[in-house]
Every structure is written in structure tokens, then in C-alpha cells.
Amino acid sequence: MPTYKLGGINVQFPYKAYDCQLVYMERVIHALQQGCNALLESPTGTGKTLCLLCATLAWRESVTPAVAASMGMMNLNTQDYSLSPELNKPKLPTILYASRTHSQLQQVIRELKATSYRPKMIVLGSREQMCIHRDVQLMRGRGQTQACRALCKERSCTHQNRVADYMKSHPDLGLDPIDIEDLVKIGRTHGPCPYYLSRELHSSADIIFLPYNYLIEKENRRSLSGISWDKTVLIFDEAHNLEGLCADAASFDLPSPHLTACIAEAKQCVDLAISHRGQDNAADASIDPDNFAVLKALLLELEKKINEVNLESSEAGFTRPGSYIYEFLSSMKINWDTATMLIDTIDQATNLLEDEASTGSRGLGRPSGTTYRLHSLRDALRLIFRGSETAHSNCYKVHIHESRNKEPDRMGRKGAGAKVVRTLSWWCFNPGIAMEEFARMGVRSVILTSGTLAPLDSFAIELNLPFNVRLENPHVIDASQIWVGVVQSGPSGRALNSSYKTRDSPEYKQDLGNTIVNFARIVPDGLLVFFPSYHLLNSCIEAWQSVPRGATVNSSTIWERISKFKQPVIEPRESALFNQANESYIAKLSDTSSSGAVFFAVCRGKVSEGLDFADRAGRAVVVTGIPYAMKTDPKVRLKREYLDETVRVHSSNRKGITGEEWYVQQASRAVNQAIGRVIRHRNDYGAIILCDERFAQGNSQSQMSLWLRPHIKCYSKFGDAAFSLTRFFKDKAAAVPMKSLKSIAPSCATVEAVEHTTDIVSISSSVEPPIREQISHHNELSGEYTWKKTSVAMRSISGGGRLGQAASSAATNSLSDILASNRVRSKQTLSSLPIVSANCAVGSATGFVRENYKEFESRAEEEHKRQPVAPVKSIISLAVSTKRRLTEEPLEKPWSLSKHLKSEDKVSAGEEVKKDDVKLSKANEESKANKADTSEKLGSVKPVTPGQLPSTTPPALQDLSGAQKQQVVQQSNDAPKSEKAVVSKPAGGGKTKNASAYLEEVKAHLSVVEYSRFLDCMRGLKNQLMSMATLLEAVAGLFSAPERLFLLRRFGDFVPTKHRQLYEEVFSAKRAELGYPSVDLDGESSARTSEVSSLKACLNSRSRKSPMKKNPNH
């Protein structure tokens, strides 16, 4: 197993680690060594869970007795070490690994099994997952808890009685990874209760896997007995929802039906206490019915007070500062002095009800397993009267509002005579309250990680903890594996916008439906479609299932047309029905009679959270809009007001975010989470289709995940998006099928952060051999950094080149050694380099920054010149064909236009916009000497003069004047129209005059910025950073104006034969944009064909009258 030395610690990793994985583990180890908190974002598919486990467990093993003693982890209670050596042995840190759901924890434990680490572990779960009692396992919620406790109290649960004996006979339990299913299997086979078995093991475990609520909720934390919280490490995986969960855990809602139920339960306790009075049972005799009568009277008074509050309006409700809750309750004599007694009385009442329910005595109790609302009231009072009187009340709002009871009446009519429900709420708007508890408890480190945490600054501010280590990792995939497009309009040309102004219009729903019909046809296998809300999902589907106005009787509905290509499944609002919907989607996806399935879902729903739609299960995800929360929702409105007020009050000494910033970020995180369903591992591929014109705006794209931004392309015309997406999946279909994830370790794309920007640029991608060897010189270059201190807080971190090559199982390589061995001409090691702070306020280290991307790009290009060059078949013979991009074939070598691109790259400062003054390093200066040798090895091109384009004038030229039109047509006729390039050896000094002349012509017809972009595209192809398909699309975009069409046609003279078909498709599509027939798309007007035909006939007649001379070679 490969071993890496990171931060002075040997980390065993089950696979050959890649850059982003090594950087991630190094950040984890740094945080643990320094005893600070970490905020780590790494996209799905980068192996973050495996990295987190290996780094954390390696650090724990490295903690020596001396270090543990210095951390205060001594078990010593005696003065004589010789008498009790085991007691004096330092206790190593305990790791608590929390995730949101049990299914996520199961995946984490599977990852643990793949490592070489075997700490003593246990997984904690609820009784619902672990109870094996014949009767109790059928119950749910608090009722199940009460029934279980009653049985254990009477020692009548045989499974719980066997736990102690099983523990004695199996002292090694937990040394091998076990999950909940394993514990349940042990219970069913050998008899011990899995729930209490895990409870017994957790106090001695090295690492504990548990759900979030065990850590966030104070009552649940109390059940974790035997854990020394000081110096403990807390890990929150999938932490993107942690902010909301923390706020909800510190809040409560008390609706009037619940309060009514509490009053009834108090009355029942009074009756039970009276009936027990005078009995011989001392415990029953000690219960005073007067206490329960006082409780009932207080609850009646509380109900009356809530109903007497005058609401400002039905929408606004009644809102007061958080401290008002104490004033409100004190009017009923509920204060700090009486709250404790009241809570004790409620505990006595619930115990009495539970005892009566378990015995069924006198017929007054409820069925066993019933949940009592008095528990909710007790929890609310504990929340209000915790700590000191003034603690955190400024982070709360008291809110009373009315709503209609949605339950049907006795006749089954929904909303008929619905009762008005008043709810008393105490809402927390500072999720940091829950996290601050960990700091007070002395926890050593809190590590939060997820694929969608950005923006990190606001996330850290909301949680109110100092995160000195931060990381935004790149994705492991390369550009050829993902298609990201903003589709701004539908097939009819109408803008796609799901804002409240347009989302309910029939025209919008019709166009969105036609858009999805086309994508259902183009995308193979599984398609996920996310809507901003259930309301929009249901209204669109209802519209699509109806025949639109004006349609004939036999016309197909949009729903029928979607079903023709994909079998649909709809995400249910009810959680209990979700598993059935998910199974239906899997079954339909496996149905060979159709071309796949489409899952219609909602952002923030179950489909968007934690489910794995890898490979065929999710080839594309469509996001139909931005899921902004309703601004009129009281909780959303008050949260925005709270943040705005906080910024105003603390603007001088505390950084914060405004309500509007929070509002936008919440929607963006939901989009990022939905997008994360489509790329699930290093060899996966898919498309992300953003069907809302608002995604084209800069502020929307800036909220996207950092790794995603460079791939986003905006399409103003639907046809362009459909053509590009079709080409993407055709390329994938032509490629060799991907290898299984089980046999291939995740890899990483090398990414760099340019100082003062947030742009992420993919420099290289690690692929399977032999391609990896072919691009090794790129990886070496990407390890060469210019290190620089910066005063601007980084928002990203780059992993440099190949941070490490996996060593043999017997060898151990340090990160600094690996980095140094892969760096070209650089003798610096990681330990000697200044590390740039990601949070300058706290001076933390988060990673590496390259000083300037332009400099690196120049070095990469010059390094290419130093590599052996094979004979060139054409100017663009470097290009990786769409069929070869993911195969084992070796890549082609640099092409002969490189020297011309290099010379053309030197644009004066007066021409170029905001050009950085980049100084080449000494190593780069030395590499210039090799240019001449390389240039002599490159072939030149001598294209044959072929026939001309037809002299038809595209319709787009109608807007030009006669002189301009004639000049354009003359240029097009003068340009050579070769079907294939003929290559000959360079004559004279190896000059490629045709290529030089073409570049000069391109420069003359493009602006400075456009020409610079053209050079970047060509350079990207030469450096193997861009496929031929991507290059042709980019060049076609630059040459899209009618007067530049001849440049695109002449570009074809330099395209090799094997890429000719691809070029012709791109060229044909561009001609179609200018008026020639294009791809037929569902939903587009059929009138376009006849219109184009008439235009062509008119233009052909004009061209025949043209006085221009024909080319004799035509």
C-alpha cells in the first residue's frame, strides 16, 4: 500500500494518490497538529471521505505518549505509576465522525474497510434502525423510546439482558469495521441488543460514527457518556446543511394543537394522581395531583395569552426581539426561579403517563408507544432557560403567526371549515450558538467538509467559529468529461426564466417542456430535472399532461413526447413514498425497451441530497431555475432582517454578510448540491444544463462551485446548445467505455489560483497509462511554483502538479521530496517555501498560489518545445480526436504553428487589455535556446488550392452595404477551400508561409481581445489542454460574423483528414446560423425551412448576376 509523508506523518493510502487528495490530507493533518478548525470543500468524486479517514487515523497513530500527555490526555488518578501503569497510560484522541444520514455513514464505513487502519470503532444509531425486539421494533419515534425504556426498567427485554455477557466473550468487537447491519445481524444471531451493544462500546472506541443530531442537540450529547470532550476531534461530513440544522436545533415551534394536547395530558395526569392517592405504593403516593393541576392551569393561561396577541397582519404576524420571550412567560409566573420546578413537574407527568401506558392499568392509559406532547413543551422550556438570562437572546426572534389547518374535515374536504392555528415560535438566527458549545467543551478540532460549502467566508461567519485552515479543491475530471451550458432560451426563442413574474405563464411552461423534450432525446440513459419548488414542479407537469390551446385533437402532449424518449418518475413530497419512487426510477432505467428514464425532482429535496446517480443513472442534470426561498416567508424575512441589523451594529469590528447575500447563497448552494448528482467519480461524465437566463449573469456564476466555473458556456440560441450537447454525447459514445470505479482510484485535475482572482484553470488531468506518461511533462511543470505572500484573502487553494507519486509499499516519500522530484529545474522543497494564508485575519495556511498564470502558460509552452517532436501530418496534428480523448492511444505531438503563435503572442501593452507584466524565470530564459532546434523538426504545410465556396450570399449579409458585401464575398472566394491538407517538408529555412499569412489575416479581422482569445485556443490545443471539438467550437464562435466566414472556411485547410468530418459539422452549423438550413429541433417553427429556401433562391440569383471573376480552379 502506498505511503506518503505529509506534515511529518506517514499516511498509508489504499491507492496511488493524486494532487488534490494529497493537498486535502495535508490540510487535515495541519489542522489536527495545530489544534485548529478546518473548512474543507472537495467536489464529489475526489475521494474526500477516504482522504479524511486516512489522514485523521494516521495523525492519531502518530500521537506519542509524550504528545498525548502534553495535550492533557492522561488517565492518571494515582500518584504511583508503577502501581497502575494502564491507568497512567495516556489516552489517545477520540474521533467523532458525524454525517447527516445513516446511508452516508454506511458509505464511510465501507471506505474505512478499504484502508489499512483498524481502530476500535462503533457506529451509533437510533432504535428504529437497531431494535430487534418483536414488538418494539414496530414502533416509531418517542413512543418506541418509551416502550424500550419501560421494558429495560423491568428487565423484561431478553436482548438487552444479554449485552453484558456478549461483551465479555467478545472483547475484540469493533476492531474490524462494522456497520449497523452487522450489529443487527449479531443481535439476531446471538441475541444481544444491537442498540445497547453500540452504547456499551462507544465509551472505549477510538472512532465513533454517528448522526449529526447526537452532537448538535445537547440532550443527545448527554447520552454519549464516557467520552472526554476536551481534546476530542469532531468531523462533520456533508456539512453543507449544518448551518440550517444548527439553527433548527436551537429553535422551537409550539402550535396551538400541540398546546391543546399538552393541556389534555396534564388533565390526565391529575386524574391518574388522584386515583393513585392512598395506595400502598410509596412511589405512587408521592405524586401530588396539585402539581399537575398547577401545570394544567399554566398551560391554559399560556394558550389564552397566545390567542390574545394582536397580529399586525395575517402575513406579518407578531414579531418581537428574542428577549421578549422572558417578558411574555413572566406574566404567567414562569421565570428563572420557577422554570426548573415546572420542568421537573413535566418530567413527572410524562413518566406517569408512560408507566400507565406500559401497564394499561385501569384503562386510563394510552397504547404503549404513544408520543406525548409534554415532551416538546419540556424541550422548549429547557431551550429558553438554559445558561444565563441574557445569553444569546439577541440572536432570537419571538414570532406568533396564524395558518390554516390543512387536514380535511369529517367529510374529507380539504380546507373546508379549516381551523385557524396559532403558533408561538422562538427562532434562532445564529447557528453558531450550537457550534460555540464545542469551543466551551474544549474540543481540539472541528473539521467540516462537503462538496458544496462555498463561499467559505460566509459559511465560517454563520457558524461563528474560527476556521484557520480552509480549502477549495478542484475536481478530478478533465474538461472532456463535462458539458456545462446556460440555455437562455427555448426552441421558440422565448427566454427561459423561472422567476415569479413568468413561471406561471402558459408560454413559459410550453417552452420549458419543449426544451426538456429535446434534452430527453439527446441525453442517453438517466436524466435528472430539478425544479425550484414542488409548486412549480406540479404545475408544469399538469400543464404538460394537457393538450395546449389551439392544438388538434390528435396532437401529442408534451408529457407524451417526453415519455417517448424517457420513462418519467416524479419525486413525491411525502418522505414515506420516496423509496418507492427511487426504486421505480432504477427499474425504468434498466428497461431495455426504452432509452432511459427521467427523474423530476426538487432542489433541496431527497433526490438532490446524498443519492448516488453515477454513470448511466445520471448522464445529465437539468436545473430549471434558481431555488430562491419565498421572501414573504416569516422565517426568511426575519433572517434577512437579523443579518442586516447585525452588519449595521457590528460593521466596525466584525465581518458579516447581508440578508441579501445570505438569500442568494442559500439558493446557490441548493443548485450546487443538485449539480453534484451527475459527476460521481473520476471516470464518470455528464452534462449540466442550466435552463434559466439568470444563470448567465456574473453574480449567479460567481456563486457556483469553484471547479465548475471554467466550464460554463452560455448559449443565447437553443440550437447552438442542442448541437453542442449532441456532439458531446456522440463523442462519449464513440469513446472506449469507462473502466469501473472499483478498479481505478480517484485522480485529480491540477488547478491553480491566480492571485486577486477567483478563476480556476485546469492545467492537466491525470488519466490512466499510457496517456499519463504522455503528459508527464505537463505534470512536472505544474509542480513549479512562484511563491508569494499576498494580502488578499484567498478564496481557493491549488494543488500543485503531481504532488506525489505513489511509493512502493516498503518506501515512504515525504510531500516535500515528492514535490521537489517532480519540479522542473526547481530545487525548493515544500517545507522551505512560504505558504500563503487563506484567512489572513488569523494567519492560517491553506495551500499554494501561483504568482501568475500567464507565466506558467509560457513556461508550459516552452517546455513543450523541448520535448522530442514526431513528424507532423498537418498544422493541427496535435489535436486529440473525439474518439481518442479517453482511450489508451498515445497523444499526438505539438504542431508546426507553434512558432508562429509564439511570435504572434507578443502584443504591445497599448493594444492588449490589462496585460500583466510577467518576468520569465531564469529557467524559462534558458529554455529559449532550444526553440531553434525544435522549429527545424516541425513540418510545414503547403495546402492545395481547391474549389471556392458557392457565390451565394448568406442572408446575414443583407445588413451590409453593397461594397462591404462584395468585399466579404470576394475574400471568401479568394480563400482556398481544401478538403484535405497536403503536407510537404519545409523548404529553405522551414518557413510555413501559408500558416503565417493566415495568422496575419486572422489578426487583421479580429479585435485585440478576440485575437488573444484565438491564440489561447490554439495554445490550449498545442499543450493538450483542449480537444479538437472544443477548439472548433471556440474558433467558430470567434468567426461567427458574416464577414469572417471565410476565415472559418480557410481554417479547414489546416485541419487533418481524420478531423475533417468534425470540422464540416461545425462549419455547417455556423453556416446554418447565417441562414442556411440547420438541425431540426422539437418545438421550433417549421416555417424556417421554407424561409431559408426562398432566401437561398434569391441570393443565388443575385450571385449569378455578380460581376466578380470566378476562380479558374473552381
Quick overview of this protein structure:
The chain is α/β, with parallel strands linked by helices and 1114 residues long. The chain has 4 domains: 3-248 and 444-468, Rossmann fold (3-Layer(aba) Sandwich), CATH 3.40.50.300; 251-430; 479-627 and 678-734, P-loop containing nucleotide triphosphate hydrolases (Rossmann fold, 3-Layer(aba) Sandwich); 869-1104, no CATH class.
Describe this structure in words.
By secondary structure, the protein is an alpha/beta fold. The protein has four domains: 3-248 and 444-468, Rossmann fold, CATH 3.40.50; 251-430; 479-627 and 678-734, P-loop containing nucleotide triphosphate hydrolases (Rossmann fold, 3-Layer(aba) Sandwich); 869-1104, no CATH class. It contains 44 helices and 27 strands. Strand 1 and strand 2 form a beta hairpin. Helix 14 (242-249) packs across helix 21 (432-441) and helix 23 runs parallel beside helix 30.
